[in-house]
Amino acid sequence: MKNLKLGIFGFGCVGQGLYHVLQQSNSINSEIVKICIKDLNKPRSLEAAYFTDKKDDLLQNEGIDVIVELIDDAEAAFEIVSTAMNNGKSVVSANKKMIAEHLEELLELQEKNNVSLLYEASCCASIPIIRNLEEYYDNDLLSSLEGIFNGSTNFILSKLIAGGQTYDEVLKEAQDLGFAESDPTLDVEGIDPKYKLCILLFHAFGLVAKPDDVFNYGISKINDFDIDYAKKRGLTIKLISKCRREGDKIEAYCLPTFIPIGSVLSQTSNEYNAVVLESAFSESQLLYGKGAGDKPTGSAVLSDISALNHDYKYEYKKKAKNEGKFELCENFDMRLYVRYNGSSPDFNDFESIEEKYQSDRGNFLVGTIKLKKLKNSRWLKDSTINTIVLN
Amino acid sequence: MKNLKLGIFGFGCVGQGLYHVLQQSNSINSEIVKICIKDLNKPRSLEAAYFTDKKDDLLQNEGIDVIVELIDDAEAAFEIVSTAMNNGKSVVSANKKMIAEHLEELLELQEKNNVSLLYEASCCASIPIIRNLEEYYDNDLLSSLEGIFNGSTNFILSKLIAGGQTYDEVLKEAQDLGFAESDPTLDVEGIDPKYKLCILLFHAFGLVAKPDDVFNYGISKINDFDIDYAKKRGLTIKLISKCRREGDKIEAYCLPTFIPIGSVLSQTSNEYNAVVLESAFSESQLLYGKGAGDKPTGSAVLSDISALNHDYKYEYKKKAKNEGKFELCENFDMRLYVRYNGSSPDFNDFESIEEKYQSDRGNFLVGTIKLKKLKNSRWLKDSTINTIVLN
């Protein structure tokens, strides 16, 4: 058992909670040596000697073994994390954007410097999904992984479906409660959950996918007509991130999806996240917990620090084994609901159309389309057209 | 990566499923060499050369690295497993009774012979709870673990609450569907989930508890009055196994418990199992999946075989760290509902009584009692008295 000396970047609620839990824990034999913050003048709960505003007081400090990176800015985080690793320090990070965008470089940095980078908190906060993919599903038995990876949109959708409020009202409430950012684009357009999907895709199948190569479609165009459609059919709407393997092809996307009421995913409300895994013997398993917030994030960061005490590293067994084997594929058929009010979607884009409905309130079709066609269609960007996956 | 040679005891559905998945998997580099069965004359799906009815054809076979034990009889299983380990073979087992009753001997056998014994399938089948306790919750941050660990009783309770059938009718249906044994005692009296609780107690806190030392109380006395009580209050009833740490004391029991409708445990129906963990930062996490049946059991056995390919062993870190630190304690207060029709419970056993209700249909009280007093009370065994935990 090591006695790890930690240097922390960022001292918000997560950092402060970490400090208190480490004080109380006997088994996580670690102590905070130095904390790098932006504003040295802000009042702090610890004595001033802990704090610095100079990165190098941590990164060049030989008395620090592990850097815990808890800042927002992905590019600044990447510079901190890569410098730390090049200086022989292991790293714990919660920065999904940074991890998803720099996956290959981060792998090389770990290997070159023989250090460990853990980032359990980056995906679904308190849910230990990365560790389970690395350790328990460390073979080729996994066939699919899907779930609700974003608390803000899940809160918004839960409220919208409950009824009585418009999208804009619900979004404002989410922002007031701190569940959504003042610029909600990353959440509501499905970009934040896509970062997580890219990370999980890698740990599930060993496939490195750039966020730009994975399709995302958000929830901002969902209206009353769509919600009525769901309710009349015993469905609800969730923003689902999904990856699935068929042979050597893998499909991956993040799209709003109709989910039967009563299923476990339908019961994942508000800030909760859920991950459903399908593996050999085709039985599904669920991991469920809070997917955002200081405490859930803190608990994952703590578990990573605890693991570093035992010299834990991700082994990336699947990458080694599957090198070059799998590829992202956009040739999968998807069953879609498309609602349109003004202009129509191009019906020729569809493999087949099972239903068409027209009324004064709105029109919809239900049909099958290749992901590639959907992604490249012009009509998808039309503000009066919305689409939702229908399984 | 090894190429493991497997010897299997028992060739029911789990064994047969294993054979087929191993044939298809590229990453679980293992093959079945020999299978020991009771009845050589029964028709089998594989060629006769695979089969033997002599234990030693597997146990003394130097061409076999790993014994997979899939038989029912706990004592016969213990002899097989201990002989295998003494002969330098690693073992995968799904036998909860055998593991729970022989925990310390099994630890010694692993250490003495430098072999690995894995038994993920013994607790909640497909839910990877042991691995998560060993690897992710490998520190002192866990404060409690509770859940639904028995599919038969969960099926019976789901049906009973749905209404329209008596306990005996529902039990018979469960037996007809294969969800309950012809002698249902182990399930309905809470003994089977108690075995699992003992195993999880060990992996959660490092405490070895004999099944006899953990209190269990079943579901066979639940009647319409109890169900009405639940329904009127927005509650359902689940057979909950629970362990919780407070300082160096640990309480552990398996008892029917009122659960608010809408909570995740209330939504765990039929053959599903669920485990809720509470850890530092007091956030709760849930693992959910099928807890019984051939396929869920097979998936856990497969994951153990896959792990043996990477020389995985349980490290039992918490046992080493907490040696002699924790003890089972029966001095915790429990809030109970006690329903009585004929004779009364001894009111003096209670620390306090908040409510008493009397009617022609039945009487109940709600009060607080120490587990020790409850366990030793005479009235608890009275067939006209039933008790359910009320949190």
Care to give the gist of this entry?
Two copies of one chain form a homodimer. The first copy, chain A, is an alpha/beta fold.
* CATH architecture verdict of the largest domain in chain A: 2-Layer Sandwich
Could you give me the name of the CATH homologous superfamily of the largest domain in chain A? Dihydrodipicolinate Reductase, domain 2
Spatial extent as radius of gyration of chain A: 22 Å
Q: How many structural domains in the coordinates of chain A?
A: 2
Could you tell me which chain pair has the largest interface and how many residues each side has? A-B, 43 and 43 residues
Biggest sheet descriptor of chain A: 11 strands, mixed
Oligomer: homodimer
- The top-level CATH class of the largest domain in chain A is Alpha Beta
Task: Name the beta content range of chain A.
Answer: 25-35%
Shape of chain A: globular
Query: Which structural class matches the secondary elements of chain A?
Result: alpha/beta
Instruction: State the distance separating the first and last CA atoms of chain A.
Output: 49 Å
Number of strands of chain A: 17
Catalytic activity (chains A, B): L-homoserine + NADP(+) = L-aspartate 4-semialdehyde + NADPH + H(+)
GO molecular function, one term (chains A, B): homoserine dehydrogenase activity
Organism (chains A, B): Reichenbachiella faecimaris
Family (chains A, B): Belongs to the homoserine dehydrogenase family.
